[in-house]
From TrEMBL:
The chain holds residues 1 to 294 of 445 of the full protein. Composed of three domains: the N-terminal N domain, which is responsible for interactions with the ribosome, the central G domain, which binds GTP, and the C-terminal M domain, which binds the RNA and the signal sequence of the RNC. It comes from Blattabacterium punctulatus. The gene is ffh. Part of the signal recognition particle protein translocation system, which is composed of SRP and FtsY. Residues 267-280 form the SRP54-type proteins GTP-binding domain. Its main location: cytoplasm. It is found in: Cytoplasm. GTP binds at residues 106-113, 188-192, 246-249. This is Signal recognition particle protein. Its EC number is 3.6.5.4.
Length: 294
């Protein structure tokens, strides 16, 4: 994860040759390369420009502490800026209500169903009793898929194969949850290939009816800047509480993940980095910044 950006930044920092104070001249080329590294990693060019400007302002003329050399000082400044860009700290999901309702949405193929089961597994480890609800009324195969993934890991699933009514599925899942003493309901909604009216009407309907404690939007990080556009268009219709970025183990360049929260104003709550049930991490900006800086 984030190896692409890590390598590029490492190269940019490698060329820094200043050995006392940092000044306009000795940092110029490094800043240029940092900007290029960010843009290459899919960071929006305006954000990359502001980022570099801040690093410049904070580093030039700054007295280097005896414990740090100039290069370490720049790394520390970049680290602080990255953490701040990513929203500073993790915002936890709210699972205090009984039952807690979590609505999962996203485009088809983004990793919604995989994430729903990973979340269920994660919550079980936190001593919660989750219930996965297969609510894709358009693709029976999606229901089977959730069943297969969940049953493999012994995660309870609720589905009504013949129902085309998402409200009915939700209502009946609540009854089932109360019978089985489940206290977190994870609703895996239908995904579409693009954000369209039918998809939004359906999501709005279940959103308004179920009044979720958490609405999580799952997005594929491999789609780069498009990931940000997708979340932006979706959030015009629903109040998203958090973003889940998937497939960070692939060829994703990471730029969307590090800029998402500052562009959208919503936190990334989880990242997914593989196909296995345990490949889910809470999004901690400090940890990601540490990884990026090696
Ligand atoms: P959905 O249509 O949004 O429900 O997407 P799925 O959960 O079915 O995921 C689509 C494909 O992406 C599946 O083959 C998953 O195994 C895969 N996938 C999901 N999350 C990840 C991830 O974090 N890393 C990788 N490498 N593959 C993932």
């Amino acid at each position: 994860m984030f190896e692409y950006l890590q390598k590029k930044l490492d190269k940019a920092l490698h060329i820094f040759k200043g050995n006392s104070r940092i000044n306009e001249i000795n940092i110029a080329e490094t800043l240029k390369d940092i900007r290029k590294a960010l843009i290459d990693a899919d960071v929006n060019y305006k954000i990359a420009k502001i980022f570099v400007q801040k690093v410049k302002e904070k580093s030039i003329g700054k007295k280097v502490l005896s414990s740090l050399n100039p290069k370490q000082l720049i790394i520390k400044i970049i680290y602080d800026e990255l953490v701040s860009l990513m929203g500073k700290k993790n915002i936890e999901i709210n699972i205090s209500n009984n039952p807690t309702i979590i609505l999962i949405c996203g485009l088809q193929g983004s990793g919604k169903t995989s994430f729903s089961s990973k979340l269920s597994f994660f919550l079980k480890k936190k001593k919660k009793e989750p219930l996965l609800v297969a609510a894709d009324i358009h693709r029976p195969a999606a229901i089977d898929q959730l069943k297969i993934i969940a049953e493999k890991d012994n995660l309870p699933v609720f589905f009504l194969k013949k129902s085309k009514n998402i409200i009915e599925i939700f209502d009946k899942s609540l009854i089932y949850a109360s019978e089985k003493k489940c206290n977190v309901i994870i609703i895996d909604t239908a995904g579409r290939l693009a954000i369209d009216k039918i998809m939004m009407d359906e999501i709005q309907k279940i959103y308004q009816y179920s009044k979720p404690d958490e609405t999580l939007f799952v997005v594929d990080s491999m789609t780069g800047q498009d990931a940000i556009n997708t979340v932006q268009s979706f959030s015009k219709f629903l109040n998203i509480d958090g973003i889940v970025m998937t497939k960070l183990d692939g060829d994703s360049r990471g730029g969307a993940a590090i800029t998402m929260s500052s562009i959208i104003g919503k936190p990334i709550k989880f990242i997914s980095n593989g196909e296995k049930i345990e490949n889910l991490e809470i999004f901690y900006p400090e940890r990601i910044a540490n990884r990026i800086l090696g």
